[in-house]
Amino acid sequence: NDRPETLEFQAEARQLLQLMVHSIYSNKDVFLRELISNASDALDKLRLAALRDKDLAVDTDDLHVTIEVDREARTLTVRDNGIGMSRDEVVSVIGTIAKSGTAELLRQLREAQEAGASQELIGQFGVGFYAAFMVADRVELTTRKAGESGGTRWESTGEGTYTLGALDEAPQGTAVTLHLKPADTEDNLHDYTAEWTIREIVKRYSDFIAHPIRMAVERPGADGAEATTETVTLNSMKALWARPRGEVEPAEYHEFYKHVGHDWADPLETIHMRGEGTFEYEALLFIPSHAPIDLFSPQGRRGVQLYVKRVFIMDDCDALMPNYLRFVKGVVDAHDLSLNISREILQQDRQIRAVRRRLVKKVLATVKDLKTDQPERYRTFWTEFGAAVKEGLVDDADNRDTLLEIVSVASTNDPAELTDLAGYVGRMRDGQADIYYVTGENRTTLENSPHLEAFRAKGYEVLLLTDPVDEVWVERVGSYQGRTLRSIAKGEVDLDTEEERGEAEAQRERQRTEYADLLGWLTGVLSDSVKEVRLSARLTTSPACVVGDAHDLTPTLEKLYRAMGH
Ligand code: ADP
Ligand code: MG
């Protein structure tokens, strides 16, 4: 065997580990949930790999997780016979954190920890494997990837470096051994070598895991006979989504969400539904309580897993949820699909498309109900996911009407509150024909925009749109309840009533003659920068402003298109 090498964690991984090693997170028991969750994922991946690749010589008949304890040595091992990791995979997934936005989150996390409030943020990060370092001062991992002959041994104390060595022999799959810190109630550490502690944690957090989680336990012999060991299965393995809704406790839903959503926080909403008839399926979907840090990154994870009759088929099933609902997490179990179905075929499948239509309607109806019945929760939802949901106004014409009821935007009506479009229409002034909006980088800039002056003077409300996607959807949607959505920064604005218009037109005519020379001169001088200089009805106190043609791209839109690679 080669001598083990010592390698350094990537900077961000090192920082996160520091936070774990010195964690004040009060619920340290969840480390076991994370390790079991990873083991279960590895088992799913192996079954799938075996299904896809007939040449992969692996045995998938008894996929399971084993928990082993050694009370004397104070170690706890979580072992699986799943897909395993190659040496390179160990380095890249255990030694680094690839998620975008990590640096920023870590900065916030450190600040929060200094302020003694890191819990919630740790929850948002979903620290996964590193959670082991909350309860262990040393962690060993041995693994062998399915189909490879040699294995890899990884070890670390979580303090900056890890060692990596090759193993000639190792069972296929992964074993993670924790050298436990001393049990200490002040540090909220339970005795993780005690059978009942483990039983309880598994029952609470991992009962629904679809593979058996086994442990050898000692049974005292009856009537002075010798003690025996027996292997017991700790979880019920019941697929939560297959159980009747009324029989599942909210806490069970929440733990299941944390497993499928790779999240530490409870979900905002749970949607459990069943489709009967020609195409049977069960769906258990969740709206998270916070956006993932990669919501707007093209490599970001999408949320829905596909199962066929309890067998995991794929993660990130994009055929089941449109892109604008990519944050929805959960499971869809379709009964009548082939286990070998590919992504490409799924996209074409008529029944899958029908399921997707129903899921989308249900998610949108759930959000709409939140908005009516639980405004606080709706506000959380909208703050986290609104910018993504608005993409639906562009992409999903079928649900546009529902989406238009869900949308909230900032407006000049109230500096602190958002409004929906119905609210805006309800406040429209007599004689106001259109819905006015202005787009830009942020609310403050927009509120100080000279474009707003004439509208303020008239008492007309203007929507202040600051997300890049806003420009696209207002164009695409065009109108709401028969009223045109009109940008106040484009083309001619006409705010006057019939009479005022006659009067104003007469006045403008006089002014045009009066200023004709000046305008001609300005147009000449500025000919490189602007098409035309004209008198404006839109300003009350500013001397001049730049406007786009009615059909021009606005600056933000230009930026958006460039970012999208157009
Ligand atoms: P996540 O599960 O959210 O991806 P984790 O930190 O829990 O994040 O795990 C990081 C990665 O390490 C996993 O995505 C997986 O690739 C790998 N991994 C962890 N545990 C195992 C395991 N038991 N078997 C195979 N791969 C594993
Ligand atoms: Mg994990």
Automatic annotation (TrEMBL):
Identify the stretch(es) annotated as B. Answer: 344-559
The record's GO molecular-function terms, alphabetically, read:
ATP binding; ATP hydrolysis activity; ATP-dependent protein folding chaperone; unfolded protein binding
Pfam families (alphabetical): HATPase_c_3 (PF13589), HSP90 (PF00183)
Q: Which UniProt keywords apply?
A: ATP-binding, Chaperone, Cytoplasm, Nucleotide-binding, Stress response
Q: Which Gene3D superfamilies match?
A: 3.30.230.80, 3.40.50.11260, Heat shock protein 90, C-terminal domain, Histidine kinase-like ATPase, C-terminal domain
Where does the record place it? Cytoplasm
Cite the InterPro entries for this sequence. Answer: HATPase_C_sf, HATPase_dom, Heat_shock_protein_90_CS, HSP90_C, Hsp90_fam, Hsp90_N, Ribosomal_Su5_D2-typ_SF
Q: Note whether Chaperone occurs among the keywords.
A: yes
Presence of keyword Cytoplasm: yes
Judging by the UniProt lineage, the source's domain of life is Bacteria
Give me the residues that bind ATP, please: 34, 38, 80, 85, 99-101, 124-129, 174, 343
- Segment A: which positions? 1-343
> Could you give the subunit structure recorded for this chain?
Homodimer.
Family statement:
Belongs to the heat shock protein 90 family.
Q: What function does this protein fulfil?
A: Molecular chaperone. Has ATPase activity.
Tell me the protein's name.
Chaperone protein HtpG
Source organism of this protein record: Micromonospora radicis
Q: Gene encoding this polypeptide?
A: htpG
